[in-house]
Amino acid sequence: MKFEHVTFDLPHGTFHALQGGDPVGQPALVLHGFPNDPPTAKPFLAELGRRGRHVLAPWLRGYAPSRTAGPFGFASLTSDVLALIDRWSPGRAAELVGHDWGALITYDACVTAR
Prior knowledge:
alpha/beta, Rossmann fold, five-stranded mixed sheet, 3 helices
């Protein structure tokens, strides 16, 4: 499965991501852990795409080519993720999948979005 490199200009900088899968499928945002980045998860991303998901895997703040400047607290990282969801999937709920550090951001995003 092919993934394209996309960018999003968000309030706190430009964020890069891999996007693929079914464009009309359920949006699924996959957040990487430390020290990984989206390309290391391509087999997993491809499987989500084969199962009908529209997948987006961003390079989180601190990981080039996305914004590398801080702050790096959960409030900032969560704000980035929520802004990304609003821009990528406006008005449509997205599934959040997180690994390692990405799982902590996923939890914080779910609590914050309530």
